[in-house]
Amino acid sequence: MICISVTPQSRRLAKVDLLNAGRYCDIIELCIDHMIKEPDFVDLLDGIPRPVIISCRRKEDGGKFEGTEEERMMLLRQAIVSAPAYIEIEADLADKIPRFGKTRRIISYNSLNKPPGKVEELYAEAVNQLKADVVKVTWRTDTLDTAWSMLAAVSKRREKPLVGLGQGQSSLMLSMLSMRYGAPWVYAALEKGMEAYPGQPTVFDLHEIYDGDSINSQTRFVGVTDFRTEEVNTVKKLNAGFRKLESGIRCLPMHFGKLDNIPKMLDFLKINALLIHPNSATQILKIADQMEEAVRMSLCADLLIKQKDGWHAFGTLWKTALRTLEQTLDPDNSAGRPLDRRNILIVGSGGLSQSIAYGVLKRKGVVSITAPDDLEAKQVAQTVGARHVAFQNLYSTLADVVVIADLGIKMGHKRDEFNPGFFKGSMTVLDLSDLNDSSPLLKEASDRGAVTIDGRELFHTHLEGLFKVVTGKDYPADVVVE
Predict the structure, then answer these.
(1) How many CA atoms lie within 13 A of 343 on its CB side?
(2) CATH code linked to domain 319-460
(3) 355, 278 in Cβ contact below 8 A?
């Protein structure tokens, strides 16, 4: 189940938020600590189509309540009299706010940083001494290792339900895993800007992007790490294909901290594939047992697959880029080796540019490497055995093909910027600097008559290749149309 947290400031908007939230969830949390004036609970709850949890959190627990502790307790007592489905009470107040009517008690343990204690001990106290109907634990979970003890707790079968709420950038990951392990509910915001705590996913995220309604104990996850704009679009496209095939696979956003126990954690979660950003793979590659040659040289990978002998690291984006480039240069496949003896200029000094240089050299192309940071570019060139071109000498360099593989490259006329006047009509230009948006550099190259390869189209081709690796099936054609 999904619980939407609403955080209205006015009584009028509170009713609107409750009614709107009721259209998209199974249960609603009304956070009255955000309200400026004392609410009329009977009026607020009248006509709401979903069970309502009322909470009022202190600032030290991540809430917004400005009054005294006596005033807060009075509000909670008034709330109980209005007969909501649930009332949330901190463990240290449980004895001061007695049970009333049919309202069930959520006994909560909150911390803004580390866990508030050993979860099993807190659970036993809440159930046996504080008469909890539901137990809730909250702390900050920015990475998989900081979320691990919470995940272990919510995955157990219990007499009374246990809800885990992880705040921070791994909140979405924890929510999705909690759904798989049968947690009573997970929390979401109604929309962006209405989050009850930092990192809270929206109900749109859970429904539309991650297909939360279909997640169950049989769901298999593919981890997607180092979340950026590219990764959100990766998830949207892959999950759409997974749904169409009814494969039971979904993407899981993940953030790693310490890597010591990550392989064991991934085994426990039954995750055997990780999609990673090629320019930030160096740390995650520490868990790889085997690497293909290009990855070993560049420390740039975008796919980790668990096989019988351990985790294997692969670079697939650069391969897709070179295949696309070859098809553009030789659409009829008549040349055999379309990169052979062509002058290829690679702009960039990261792992992706190094991988592409490796691939071009294998195809007998003539590679030159340049970047605003001349020292880094020179090191890449020496590693792969290519020619280095100082960035200031770029504009006197001849090239048949230009590959822009620097995510931070800027277009302009300054010393460390790429002047689009370099492009000529005889060139073929591939831009990997932004795979989600129309590239200004690519537009300038096209305006000057160059043949251009849109990174967005290449990105979708790349994702379809990853989809086949994960599922063993082609990406559904009708989803591409949609």
Answers:
(1) 9
(2) 3.40.50.720
(3) yes
